Amino acid sequence: MSAKKVHKVKKEDVYDPQDVRIPSKFGGGVLKELVKREIPSKKVTHYALAYINPSICGVDNGRVLGYDNSHGFAHKHFMGTTVPEPFTTYEELYDRFQAEWQAIAVEFVNGEKS
C-alpha cells in the first residue's frame, strides 16, 4: 500500500522581517516588527512593533516605543511605561508608530531628549 500524502493547511501568515538598524545620525537604534494574520480572513491575531534604543531609554530593555497585543490586550510601551491602547487596524497602528518613532529620534538627534 502506498502512503497517503498529508497536506497541512496553512492557518496563519507570519510577517517577521529582519530588524532595521537606524544610523546614529538619524537617532540610532533598531526597529522590530512582527505580524500574524489568519488565513483566509487576514484578521490580525498578533502584532508587535518596537523602537529599541538604549541611548534614549535605559529601561524595558531599551524599548523607547512599542505597540503589541501580547498578554491578552492591546497596549503601548513608552519609555518604561505600559498603557492600554485600542486597536483599530494594523495599517493605522503602523503609520502612527512610524510617525512617533521618527519624531522621538529627531528630538534625540536635536538634543531635545536625553
Question: What does this entry show, briefly?
Answer:
With 114 residues, this protein is α+β, with helices and mostly antiparallel strands. It is 18% helix and 33% strand. Strands 1, 2, 3, 4, 5, 6 and 7 form a seven-stranded antiparallel sheet that branches.
Structure explained in plain terms:
The chain is an alpha+beta fold and 114 residues long. It has one helix and seven strands, in the order βββββββα. It has one helix at 90-109, and strands spanning 12-15, 20-21, 30-38, 44-52, 63-68, 75-78, 81-84. The radius of gyration is 18 Å and the shape is elongated.
Count of domains: 1
What is the number of helical segments per DSSP (H or I, 4+ residues)?
A: 1
Globally, the shape reads elongated
- Beta-strand portion reads 25-35%
Radius of gyration: 18 Å
List keywords for this structure.
33% strand; single chain; 7 strands; alpha+beta; 114 residues; 1 helix; 18% helix
SSE layout:
Elements: E1 12-15, E2 20-21, E3 30-38, E4 44-52, E5 63-68, E6 75-78, E7 81-84, H1 90-109
Antiparallel strand pairs: 1-3, 2-3, 3-4, 4-5, 5-6, 6-7
